[in-house]
């Protein structure tokens, strides 16, 4: 082997890296108003470094975040987030958090770099792809004359009415408030206080909730304002007109949706997701029934029927039939 020549495999790796870097630069140039080579190179290096620790992101995650920011904020904010790397660094989720800060406060890239260093931007939202429509919404829970407002990273990923009914049942069973139940409820409608990012409502961070709410009617990053009225067992959704407009634009690019149909399209999309959630819950129920049968022994038929009755009641927003029947039978026996 000629020691003066690089190994062919090394040349191939370098070519792939050059192609990846040139593609990264091309995409950055299409997203950022005033890019420069040094800043873009630093961002690319950060992405390569993060790629070695997959839980923190990659060059693609950085592109996804900047793409998300460019569509949900203005050019000045996009440029500002891009320039954070000049003063420090921010992870992909922290870049989105920085954009929200810049939209609601007069923050510079230097200040956001320091905020990232201080851990003030961590654990926010990492876009799943370059075309993602914001799933961020502000949620207010009203119970016994009091209200609590938090934000969610999962708007469109759960049915508000079903979530409220699940929280009410959990609250009744565990003797806790509906508010506490909602704070521990995950997107698959399970009570899990340690559910982390899977939880419907983000705990704490009152400041971020207020900053997101201030984006309503100003930027499409906030999808909607969602209300859980536990006392009336009602939910309400107030869509951000700018988010609806962006949703409509993206649907037109994908499917050629007719003008004026954007809200109906969203409702149909949410209905499709609810149908899939119902199908998943019924499938899980069926698996439990089969598992109980295969295990042998006594099968609690009443419990099995009550479980499917409760699932149907929650999904179709009415009271469980069997619970009412059981109450009536109990009242008849006590007379």
Would you mind describing this structure in some detail?
The model is unreliable at 10-19 and 324-335 (pLDDT under 50). Strand 1 and strand 2 form a beta hairpin. The longest helix has 34 residues, at 262-295. The protein is elongated, with a radius of gyration of 25 Å. The chain has helices spanning 8-31, 37-51, 59-72, 75-82, 92-104, 109-117, 160-174, 178-184, 206-213, 241-255, 262-295, 301-315, 321-334; strands spanning 137-143, 146-152, 224-229, 234-239. The chain has 335 residues and is an alpha+beta fold. Helix 1 (8-31) packs parallel to helix 3, helix 7 (160-174) packs across helix 8 and helix 11 (262-295) runs antiparallel to helix 12. A four-stranded mixed β-sheet has the order 2-1-3-4, with helices on both faces. The protein has 13 helices and four strands.
What would the principal axes of the Cα set say about the shape? elongated
The tally of strands reads: 4
Please give the radius of gyration in angstroms.
25 Å
Strand order of the largest sheet: 2-1-3-4
What's the helical proportion of residues?
Answer: 55-70%
Distance between the termini: 98 Å
- Fraction in beta strands: 5-15%
Whole-number mean pLDDT: 83
| Biggest sheet details | 4 strands, mixed
Q: Give the class from helix and strand content and strand pairing.
A: alpha+beta
């Amino acid at each position: 082997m000629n020691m003066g020549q690089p190994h062919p495999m090394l040349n191939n790796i370098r070519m792939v890296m050059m192609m990846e870097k040139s593609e990264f630069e091309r995409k950055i140039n299409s997203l950022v108003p005033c890019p420069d080579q040094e800043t873009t190179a630093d961002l690319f290096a950060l992405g390569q470094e993060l790629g070695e620790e997959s839980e923190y992101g990659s060059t693609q995650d950085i592109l996804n975040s900047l793409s998300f920011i460019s569509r949900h904020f203005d050019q000045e904010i996009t440029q500002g987030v891009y320039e954070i790397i000049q003063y420090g660094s921010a992870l992909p989720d922290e870049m989105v958090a920085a954009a929200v800060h810049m939209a609601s406060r007069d923050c510079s890239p230097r200040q956001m770099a320091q905020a990232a260093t201080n851990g003030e931007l961590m654990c926010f939202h990492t876009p799943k792809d370059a075309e993602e429509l914001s799933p961020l919404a502000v949620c207010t829970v009203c119970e016994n004359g009091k209200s609590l407002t938090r934000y969610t990273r999962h708007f469109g990923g759960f049915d508000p009415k079903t979530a409220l009914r699940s929280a009410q049942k959990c609250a009744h069973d565990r003797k806790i408030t509906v508010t506490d139940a909602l704070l521990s409820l995950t997107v698959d409608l399970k009570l899990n206080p340690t559910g982390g990012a899977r939880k419907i409502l983000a705990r704490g961070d009152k400041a971020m909730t207020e900053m997101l709410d201030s984006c309503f009617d100003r930027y499409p990053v906030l999808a909607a304002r969602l209300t859980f009225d536990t006392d009336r067992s009602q939910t309400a959704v107030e869509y951000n007109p700018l988010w609806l407009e962006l949703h409509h634009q993206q649907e037109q690019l994908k499917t050629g949706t007719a003008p004026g149909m954007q809200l109906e399209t969203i409702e149909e999309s949410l209905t499709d997701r609810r149908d899939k959630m119902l199908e998943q819950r019924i499938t899980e129920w069926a698996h439990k029934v089969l598992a109980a049968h295969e295990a042998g022994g006594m099968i609690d038929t009443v419990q099995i029927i009550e479980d499917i009755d409760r699932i149907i009641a929650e999904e179709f927003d009415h009271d469980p039939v069997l619970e009412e029947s059981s109450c009536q039978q109990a009242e008849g026996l006590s007379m």
